[in-house]
Amino acid sequence: MFERFSEDARKMMALANMEALRFGHGYLGPEHMLLGLVKSGAGHGPRVLQDMGLDLRRIRLEVEKRIHTGESVSVGRVPQTESSKQVIVYAIEETRALEHTGVGTVHLLIGLIRDEGIAGDVLRSLGVALEDARARIRAWGPDEPDRAEPEPAPTLARRVARALSGRGKRPTLAEVEAEPSRLTDRARKVMSLANEEAQRFNHEYIGTEHLLLGLLKEGSGTGANVLKNLDVDLRKVRNEVGKLVKAGPMALRLGKLPQTPRARQVIDYAIQEARNLNHNYVGTEHLLLGLLREHDGVAAQVLRQLGLSLEETRSAVLDLLGASDEAPASAGTREPDSPASLSSPDAESLLRVAGLLRQAADELTELARKLGASRPLD
């Protein structure tokens, strides 16, 4: 959702999430977005408010008067309310109307002014008028004020160094959430199927049991194949989960469901397992190991009852990695899965370097031709 957001707008949303957690709320509403806007102080959104003669601290105090501390124990990213999603829809509408290239804090501010809840009430009570804010934004011209400058292309030396490293930066939990492409296609499918399983049980959350059911239902990834190699009947695993998990009443939540703290811990463990294997992606094999490491989850209980241990499963993963095709297609070149490929530099890395050097030679030859050189470079 945040691909078109400027860096300042993404910072605002991250701070909004922190504000929701600080107040013990299990959701992110427009009031948290407004708190995130004034707390960041970055981008033209806060400057518009200051140009109107408003003190950002006063806005914060007015919001805090209207909200109460909750009892949620959520961690990480909390789900957005329908009102906050509508604010983003308003912001996108403003971006298009102004013919700007990305969603910035100014557009989110307009969305908050149009909000019919706490955020909009606070701003209107302080004299913020929608058309006045729009006029101030239009005065800055059609270019997106908050748009981050693009990073320069990496130099040849840096690209060679990356190729020699063979892996690149290893993922963190925040990076996996912000950049789902670090998950393999099958791992993303597992996450999607886990969401479906949770909805099938009328649950309003994704727990470790749903992740396990998603892994089983996907059925063709390295994780599922490891279970098969350990002589585990996938249907039996599914039946055992069904014995422990009961359907809830009619669920009211649709779409993407929030993860429980244990489910998030599973993903964190999966990332650690990927790091230990020197992988820069997270596959279903890592998710399986993460499920086993979260000892108190329903998934681990079921797997242990069926005789699986973490060390045995990890060994089975290593045995199978040489035949896995699960690395993400978006990585440009397929990540090798064989344990032998973990040395650095390896043969594939050297081949990538050779390709880069050939490309550089071609570019230099073309440059020499343009400058009038009589022969190509060797």
- How would you describe the shape? flat
CATH superfamily heading of the largest domain: Clp, N-terminal domain
- The CATH class label of the largest domain is Mainly Alpha
What are the segments in which pLDDT stays under 50 over at least 5 consecutive residues?
Answer: 141-153, 165-171, 174-181, 323-348, 373-378
Q: Helix count, per DSSP? A: 19
What would the average pLDDT be, to the nearest integer?
A: 76
Please, could you describe this protein's structure?
This protein has 378 residues and is mainly α. The chain folds into two domains: 7-138, Clp, N-terminal domain (Double Clp-N motif); 167-339, Double Clp-N motif. The protein has 19 helices and no strands. It has helices at residues 7-22, 30-40, 44-51, 56-66, 82-97, 105-114, 118-125, 130-138, 156-165, 173-178, 185-200, 208-218, 222-229, 234-244, 261-276, 284-293, 298-305, 310-320, 347-370. Helix 2 (30-40) packs antiparallel against helix 4. It is flat, with a radius of gyration of 25 Å. The model is unreliable at 141-153, 165-171, 174-181, 323-348 and 373-378 (pLDDT under 50).
